Amino acid sequence: MDPLLYVLDLVVFIGIFGIVSLSLNLEFGFAGLANFGKVAFFLIGAYTYALLSQVGVPFYLCLIASAVVSAIFGLLISLPALRLRADYLAIAILAFGEILRLIVKSEDWLAGGDWGITVAPAISVAGASHRVDALINIGLVYFCLLIFFFIIQLLANSPYGRAMRAIREDELAAEVMGKSRTKFKAQALMIGSAMAGVAGALYVQYQYSVLPGMFMPMITFTVWIMVLLGGPGNNWGVLLGATLVEVFERGTNIAKDYIDLPVDPSNLQYILFGALIIFVLLYRPQGILKESKIRSKVQRLAFNGRRSAKNKGS
């Protein structure tokens, strides 16, 4: 493979999974929602994009539809699931993702079954090389990533974000203050699902096809590794985690071409990922970067007031 093309391909995947990791950070890092079915909404966005692109819908409308449909499913699954305890909630959403994958795999009339669907690229340039296609996708993916990053940053530092953190820390105390646990978590799941849906759409249009095998449960756990490694509650941290995991994952895939490994590279990934998570949870449970502090006008005014009072006193 062309080394430059490999690097460009890596950059695209870092951006796509950066969006997914940001969505999980909103749900888990800020709202305390253990979503172990993240791949389900990734799949919904991917198949929505693929089916609509088949009938000639413009790609930007396909992206919007992927976000909307994924958000609707996020709301529907949240209504019964959020009544469950945290561990049962994780199992319920995980089961939903696997059931959904088996449905699109077994129902040929719905989405092509095991054969999947061929997907046209979002922006095609006649006669363009693979490098040009990768550069176009880098621009498209990182434009979406930038938008979502600023949205999550604004939410995290707003009163809404402070309410989510309060619910994460103590649901009973937050509800006593008038903050509905179910309402905030359902909204977080909807927004996170919409983001994952857009990432799924970007993923399949870059791959030019969508297959059920592309949405195995391991994707969910890989995204969890990104968030836990980078630092829950820190958007920069989860992007760092996404970068490190993607570099490591793709590095082990090409290692077999240059190094004689005693185990299959895929199995080696799982072994090393498991060891890495155990190490992080034991010695750095907050991740590489600590949870970001809340930045608000009230805090800035209070800080400036303290600083001016200290200056006057000196």
Brief characterization of the structure:
It is built from 13 helices and two strands. The chain has 314 residues and is mainly alpha-helical. The relative contact order is 0.17.
Keywords, separated by commas or semicolons:
314 residues, two-stranded antiparallel sheet
Topology:
Elements: H1 3-30, H2 38-54, H3 59-81, H4 86-106, H5 108-111, E1 117-118, H6 130-156, H7 159-169, H8 171-176, H9 181-207, E2 209-210, H10 218-230, H11 235-255, H12 265-283, H13 297-313
Antiparallel strand pairs: 1-2
Helix pairs in contact: 1-6, 1-9, 1-10, 1-11, 2-3, 2-4, 2-9, 3-9, 6-9, 10-11, 10-12, 11-12
Protein architecture, described:
This protein has 314 residues and is mostly helical. The chain has a domain at 3-215. Helix content is 75%, strand content 1%. It contains 13 helices and two strands. A two-stranded antiparallel sheet has the order 1-2. Helix 2 runs antiparallel to helix 3 (59-81) and helix 10 crosses helix 11 (235-255). The longest helix has 28 residues, at 3-30. The termini are far apart.
Radius of gyration: 21 Å
What's the story with the biggest beta sheet?
2 strands, antiparallel
Helix content: over 70%
Q: What is the average per-residue confidence, as pLDDT, rounded to a whole number?
A: 84
| Strand fraction | under 5%
End-to-end distance, in Å? Answer: 66 Å
What strand line-up does the widest sheet have?
1-2
Overall number of strands: 2
Order of helices and strands: HHHHHEHHHHEHHHH
The gross shape turns out to be globular
Q: Count the helices. How many?
A: 13
Low-confidence stretches: none
Structural class: mainly alpha
